[in-house]
Structure formats: C-alpha cells, structure tokens
Amino acid sequence: MAWSCFSCTASIPVQPQVNFRPSNQKCLQDVRNMVKSLGIHSIRSSPVDSLKNGNWVKLICGASFEDVVDIRNLSLVYTLAGVNQGIEAAREIVEVGRPWVMISVNDDEDLHFRKAEFDPADCPQDCSRPCEIVCPANAISLEKENPQQAIFGIPVMRGGVLTERCYGCGRCIPVCPYDKISVHTYVRDAAATSELLRRDDIDALEIHTSGRQTLHFKSLWDGLGDAINHLRLVAVSFPDVGDSSISTMNAMYSIMEPGLRCFNLWQLDGRPMSGDIGRGATRESITFAVRLAAASDRPRGFLQLAGGTNAHTVAGLKKHGLFQTKSVSDENFKDGQSTVGSLRPLDASIGGIAYGGYARKVVGRILSSMQSQHELTCIEESPDYLLKALAEALALVGTVKCYEIPS
Ligand code: SF4
Ligand code: SF4
Q1: Is residue 186 a contact partner of residue 192, using CB atoms and an 8 Å limit?
Q2: Boundaries of each 4Fe-4S ferredoxin-type domain copy (predicted)?
Q3: β-pairing, 114-117 with 182-185?
Q4: Does the beta carbon of 135 sit less than 6 angstroms from any atom of ligand 2?
Q5: 149 CA distance to ligand 1 centroid (A)?
C-alpha cells in the first residue's frame, strides 16, 4: 500500500515494521539548533491552514515505492523541514507539528501502480546494462556470475529489479536494447483500503485516476463506503486531459459529494514522475494549474500541483501570479461556507505543491552515500548526514514555506 506525507502529507507504503536502532541523542543538538534557528519548530499552522494559505507541501514517497528504510529516513528529514516511523522519530528530535499521512490507491491501471520486471538470466552477457544506469531509484542491481560457479560453464547475469524500490517510472524500458523488460501493473483493493482507513491512523486518501472516464472511479468510491468518514482529506490525482478535464472533475465531484464529509483536493499531475529529470519538467503542471485556476466552472476543492514539480515550480507559479495569491471572486466560493470542507473566498488559488522524484533525489543521494559508506539504517545516527539532508530538504520546501534559509 502506498503512502505520501506532509502539511504536509506523506504517501508512504504500508510496510511490515522494521526495528530501527535507537538514535544517538546526544549528537543531535546541531540538528535541533538548525531547525530552531529557522523557527520551524514554532510553526504550528495546521495542514488545512497550509492549504488555505498556499503553502501546503506534500512529500510523495511514491505510490509503488516500498523501501521502508528510505521511506522512514525521507519522512524524518522532510518532517524536520516543515513533512511515520520517520515522522515520530523526527518529532523526538525536535517538537515539530505532526504532518498528515496520506495513502494512495488507483481505480484502474495506472503508471504509479506498476513494477518493472525481467529475468536477468535472459540478459546477454555483453549488455552494457543501461537499465541500471538510467534507474532513478537504484532499483536495478546486476552482476555477472563468477564463471567458476556457472552452471554448464556459461556465466549468466544475476540480480534484477529490487521490487520494493521500483516505483514504476518506466525509464528502464526504452533503454533496454534487447527488449527484455516488462511491467506488472496492479490495482489496490477497495476492501483492504477501507479496512486500513478504519484504523484511524491515516489522515488522507489520494485516488489516482485517468481523468478520462468515471466508471472505475465510481466503483472504487462505492467500494470504500463509509470508511471515507475516517478521513480529513480526499485527493484526486489525474493528468491533464485537455478540454474534458473540467467536465470529468465535475462528474467525479458529483460521485463524491453525497459521502464527502472532509476537505477535497485536486492533484494536477502535469508530467507524472518526472521532477528529477530537469528544469522543464515542471512546465506541464504549471500550465495545467494556470488553466484550472482560471476555470470558474470547476468543482470545489483545493488545487495542488504534482508531476514534474521541482526546484523551479515556485518560480513558475510566481511568473503566472499564482504563488500564494488568493482567489477573490472565484465562482466556487459564491455561497461561502460549503457543507463539505469549508473553503473561503480568500483561500489561495493554488493550495500547494507535491514533490516526489525531485524530493527523493536531493535527499536520496545523501542517504545512498550514508548507507554505502557507513552501513547505517537510521539517518539520525549520523548527524552530519542528517544536517546535509535537512539542508537539501529545506532548500526545496523552504521556498513554499517561505523560511529564511541562511546561505
Ligand atoms: S520502472 Fe523506473 S524505478 Fe522501476 S526499475 Fe525501471 S527505471 Fe527503475
Ligand atoms: S538493458 Fe536489458 S538486456 Fe541489458 S541488462 Fe538491462 S534488462 Fe538486461
């Protein structure tokens, strides 16, 4: 099951518990000082206030990403930066507010819910292994078998896709010169999701849908039943499908409205799973946001960017006058208080930004270096690494939260 976290919300997979070693408390004073010097510990705005003010940030751990150690460390670092095992560990270091925890489901086949797979024994020995190089999640690990141990004297490739790290971006598929990689897609079970929501330790649900039809969406929504009442937020994540985007949103809202007792949010998935590729990846999500923010016939709900978001997203929103600006005369607010999550006429046009691949990349390279050099599991055991990771997280999140980061 996939989770994301922050006011914040985190998408974090539901995982078996891992016993982490206790942290070295006395070495964490530098981290406390850094967080306190930025005043982050004293910021007590709720996730809903963040959405209303346009400074909501969501960390997407990845709907299919299930490496519990990385998720825990990412959550810890981003919670300290203003974004569960990891969240609680962060709150033991510095008393920061608890972010919401969000899980992700899909109503049909979806890019975010798939895993790459191949049989390494089928790979030619002389392949230069471009799949391994291109994978942004270090989810492919291959090595040539020792010829002395080879069956029949012919060495084969060993290893393959580390399933728990693969988040389905698909970049390995076109680079394989021998067409050896396929994908396995899956759909989350509505009954299992309902059961999880009833445990009351999840704050928000993100539904990934194609934005092209509502049949599967209705079936999932009906399947979730009154478990929806346990949530504070329902997010619908969908790609830009052009002129039909608004009509599909309205159709989905009509399906949700009778059972919706919490806030709702539209996640505009501009260019899915691409934020780490480069500066221009954020363009689609901004274009999508500009169009929807101007649409007076869209249904109620906060708007939040995702898909291609990176360090350039805030600048793009500012250029279009959408960064933390208020929607004064929005038709969606014409009757003031909604029976659902009450939005006000002066709430931000864009509630916030979700960061996925880019957020994982900037902190992930520090986690990789820590794990390869020190074989540590918990990042707080190495305050130097934690400080470096926190600086990276703050450089990204701080632009939305408007922290004054010392240079
Ligand atoms: S789909 Fe993406 S994350 Fe998965 S193995 Fe291929 S490149 Fe890596
Ligand atoms: S690129 Fe294709 S053939 Fe080469 S190692 Fe990767 S999966 Fe195997």
Answers
A1: no
A2: 114-145, 157-186
A3: antiparallel
A4: no
A5: 29
pLDDT tens for the 407 residues of the chain, in order: 334 444 434 444 444 344 444 455 555 677 777 777 766 655 556 888 889 999 899 999 888 888 888 988 898 888 888 764 567 778 877 777 778 889 999 999 999 999 999 999 999 988 999 999 999 999 999 988 777 776 667 777 889 999 999 999 999 999 999 999 999 999 999 999 999 999 998 999 999 999 999 999 999 999 999 999 999 999 999 999 999 999 999 999 999 999 999 999 999 999 999 999 999 999 999 999 999 999 989 999 999 999 999 999 999 999 999 999 986 545 454 444 444 555 666 788 999 999 999 999 999 999 999 988 887 888 888 888 988 999 999 999 988 987 766 55
Q: Does the C-beta of 139 come closer than 6 Å to ligand 1?
A: yes
- End-to-end C-alpha distance for the chain, whole angstroms: 39
Residue nearest to ligand 1 atom 4, measured at CA = 166
Whether 167 lines ligand 1, by a CB cut-off of 6 Å, is: yes
CA 135–ligand 1 middle distance (angstroms): 5
- Ligand 2 pocket, residue 170 CB under 6 Å: no
Q: What's the rounded Cα separation, in Å, for the pair 111 and 259? A: 28
Instruction: Evaluate whether the domain defined by 114-185 bears CATH number 3.90.1150.10.
Output: no
- The token duo for 106 is 């899909």
Every domain of the chain and the residues it spans: 1-105+236-252+263-293+300-407, 114-185
CA distance readout (Å), 157 to 169, 316, 360: 23, 45, 29
Q: Which of 203, 228, 1 is nearest to 83 (CA)?
A: 203
Q: Which of 144, 181, 183 to mutate to test the pocket of ligand 2 (most atoms within 8 A of CB)?
A: 181
| Residue 348, strand partner residues | 326
Return the best residue to mutate from 64, 129, 140 for the ligand 1 pocket (most ligand atoms within 8 A of CB): 140
